[in-house]
Amino acid sequence: MARAATVYTGPDQDEPIPVDTDATIQHVSSRLGDSTDLVSKRFLAMHAWPAGILYMEGMIDTQLLHQAILSSLLRSDLPEPKDWEIPEDPLTYIKNEVLVAGDIQTIDKLADLFDFLLAGCVILQLDGSREAIAIHAVGWEDRNVTEPQSQSVVRGPMEGFTENLRTNTTLIRRKIRSPELWLETMPIGRVTKTNVGIMYIKDLAQEGILNEVKRRLQAIDIDSVLESGYIEEFIQDTAKTPFPTLYNSERPDTIAAGLLEGRIAILIDGTPFVLLVPALFNHFFQSPEDYYQRSDISTLLRMIRYLCFFIAILSPSFYIAITTFHQEMLPTGLLINLAAQREGVPFPAFIEAVLMELTYEILREAGVRIPRTVGQAVSIVGTLVVGQAAVEAGVVSAAMVIIVSITAISSYVIPENGMSISARMLRFLLMGLAGAFGFYGVLIGILFILVHLCSLRSFGVAYMSPYAPYKSSDMKDTLFRVPWPFMRRRPLSSGGTGTQRLKPPERQT
Amino acid sequence: MNIRRMITLLLLLASLAMMTGCWDRKELNEIGIVLAMAVDLDPDKGYKVSCQVVVPSEVASNSGKSTTTTVTLVKATAPTIHEALYKMTLNSPRLSYMSHVRLLVFSEELARKGMAEVLEALIRDPNFRPDYFLTIAHGSSAEEILTILTPLESIPANSLYYSLRNSADSWAPTVEAYADDTVEKMVASGVEAVMTGIEIQGDQITGGSKKNLDSIRPEASLLFSGMAVLVRDRLVGWMNEEESKGYNYIQGNVQETVGHIDCPYGDGKVSLLLLRSETRIEPRLIDGEPEFDVKMKAVQTIYGDSCKSALGSEYAIRQLEKDANKKLAQIMTDSVKAAQTRLKADIFGFGRTFYRKFPTEWKKLGVNWNEKFTTVKVNCIVESQIRRIGSLDETITKQMKEEMPE
Q: CA-based, 20 to 30 A from A303: which of A55, A111, A499, B10?
């Protein structure tokens, strides 16, 4: 119980707003610890009523404040108060007749006052009133809609989501101009009160999955949500897997396509990464570009991506297994060549492989963190150390460098980062098995991974579908990408209702 | 509590993986890759086994300076093959790795006494892949064959391997005797095995040092010569080049080869390239006695002509075809004759084809087949076509003569 008491809950829910404006300002200011970005201002509204406004500097549109709020409240061309009828309720009068700003709400609780204030509203209170009004005047500095950093394409839309929830929903709505596109929003996070939107297309999304998504989101009880990763870990089916069971993208076209398949998007304010559920194994190998290019090249690229996934997972372990256990499997010429390269290498192949893979992971991690200005220096050192010097010094064999490079490059072919991360992790597991048991171990490892994959669910949908359980009608968008005119039905296995996408072909009579 | 138990369990499992010690593990730089093996008979101690082991750093193209030869020889003498193989660790830092053996050389002495014991040991051992060639050293010990350095292909075993394959395909008098096929032939009734012989030409002392590769004309070189004929697992004799060629024709082993025929009129030779051939052995039963037709179909091209007759005419070509048929039939008949009279071994598998067609008669006739084979009648029928005459029409000799004013 003592522990529960320390959890931050915010201001008392039912505490009313003080009648005296000065008291309100005083209260808010002290509640915010005299934060310097709180701006309070006393003035005579309509030349008649003493009033006060409160807002957080930087969170509101100052132009809007001046033009739409202050200038109408302090209009100089107004008739003298005695000339016109004094309204009974000045606050309602101001709200309905004076202010030209659009979204105005009346509040009477201090808790609400803080909510609106910190969401970027201007709070106006008239002296002696138990109520205040919150005027929506949000306007803070935003990043522009730019090309997404991850998942870039050669052909296709170049816009990416931003950190602003509203911008993001707009980007999607602009693509799907249908009244069926529904959006529900809920705040999550006791402290951050982050807006989380659930977007789906009514009739295409499965009711059950939608309810499950809502249920899981509502069950989240955390004080802060800063990125979609927070939500992801709360609502995923199981944490005990290296594979991602939620898809994320910063591309509006990807999300729109997902919605049109009947999947559900979860948008989180403050991050350009939008979640898409359910996410199946197959989805992680689909690039948005697949659908914009000709189907034949898309199919070829799909297959290359699957191949690369296997290369990324298996190539070091295959190398270890072959060179330390199964030398008979190599053609004689290649064996002698490899043996010559390994001549004088002081480590067993397994240690050599682990060392090189670790070195690569270090370089990669450093590459992400390093300030751009020194990045080049580090990459030169990296290439020289890992590539040339290590081989020339005879510490590692040249073949190992080839293996590490092809592994590294292959892991970036997978369009979604989450899947390449799982490939990177599983690689080490399989390397260990290969080092201890050879191909026998690798095979056992693959078997375990396969069984695990088949047992996974993403929001109740089998992760490996449509491969297992096999669904032949959904195979049109898996290893292959058939031309659009043949994609008659939406995929059933990705959680949608599997309705017609194209007009059914006319019967030949 | 549960998590702690899980972690303990995982740690225990992980240590289990370490405990195994990877018993089967051999690093590439801990094994000596054996590419050829020679077996000699040692009168007192059993077998003398020599292995040609690759020195990888010498073979790899980019490893600058070369200090030693590309291969080295490791040998040991012991009562059995495997004892000898493991005894080799006495004078080699690396364990012999036998999966890549490409060539096995028997000494002639051993071959005459029987190779079954050696082959049994090698085929039973799963570390050997039975796709190496079997050969017999001709005129030297088996070990000496492995001590000659070869130009062009830096590993002698590879040199022999490729040379044997190429010559079997395109010159014909050698034979690719894979270990498994050969053992199968040794075991089967109605067919006997053959192998190719290897001999050393030149000075074999220099042949083993790098000096051998210093001159354009190597001091010593290896050469495939003739074909060893076996009865069961024992060497009974040799066939010369022409007879071996006949053997390969009958077996249909020939991919491409060159031969010649004498001119129909006067002296001179026509050389012919055999483009493809197909041979069928057809057994017949005549009056309770087996008889065999060897039917060969071949397509040939003229590759050289020094005859006086005109080539241009259809008639001349048909004439040449007839001569070529006669010549090819002669080669095959000679080969059969040699097998029947001199060697008394049915290396052609006549018995086996007969058995396949007349299984019931074989029960009676198959007894002591090799003896019966010596008197069996074999007809060689060749049907060859000359499809092309090459890039020239009349021969150059003829064209010159026409322009002479006489």
A: A499
Task: Say whether both A370 and A268 belong to one domain.
Answer: no
- What range does the domain containing A68 cover? 8-136
Asked if A332 and B22 come within 8 Å (Cβ–Cβ), the reply is no
> Which spans in A47-125 are helix H?
62-64, 71-73, 90-93, 110-118
A269 φψ region: left (φ > 0), alpha (ψ -120 to 50), beta (else):
beta
Within an 8 Å CB–CB cutoff, is residue A335 touching chain B?
Answer: yes
Are B142 and B148 in contact, with CB atoms under 8 Å apart? no
Q: Does B24 touch chain A (CB under 8 A)?
A: yes
Q: How big is chain A, counted in residues?
A: 509
| Position B22 confidence tier, pLDDT thresholds 50, 70, 90 | low
Residues A319 and A404 in one domain: yes
**Residue A46 counted as domain residue:** yes
B28, A338: Cβ pair inside 8 Å? Answer: yes
Cβ neighbours, 10 Å, residue B14: 12
Number of domains in chain A: 3
CATH number of B248-401: 3.30.300.210
The answer to whether residue A22 is domain-embedded is: yes
Full-model pTM:
0.83
Q: Which candidate from A328, A345, A432 shows the least CB-CB separation from B29?
A: A345
Domain match, A311 and A274 both: no
Mean pLDDT by 10 residues, chain A (509 residues): 46 76 88 89 83 89 83 69 64 78 82 86 86 85 86 89 92 93 92 92 90 93 91 91 93 93 93 93 92 93 94 94 90 88 87 90 85 80 78 86 91 90 92 89 94 93 89 86 87 74 68
- Cis peptide leading into residue B290 (ω within 30°): no
Q: Cβ of B27 and A338 within 8 Å? A: no
A262 CB neighbour count, 10 Å cutoff: 24
Are B31 and A435 within 8 A, CB to CB? no
For residues A23 and A65, membership in a common domain is answered with yes
A396 CB within 8 Å of a chain B CB: no
Residues A92 and A24 in one domain: yes
B65 touches chain A (CB under 8 A): no
Q: How confident is the model at residue B136 (pLDDT cuts 50, 70, 90)?
A: very high
Please write the tens of the pLDDT for every residue from B92-116: 888 888 889 999 999 999 999 999 9
Contacting residues of B for A343, CB less than 8 Å apart: 29, 56-57, 60, 63
Are A326 and A422 found together in one domain? yes
Is A215 found in the same domain as A100? no
Residue of chain B nearest A341, judged by CA positions = B57
| Subunit contact B25:A341, Cβ cutoff 8 A | no
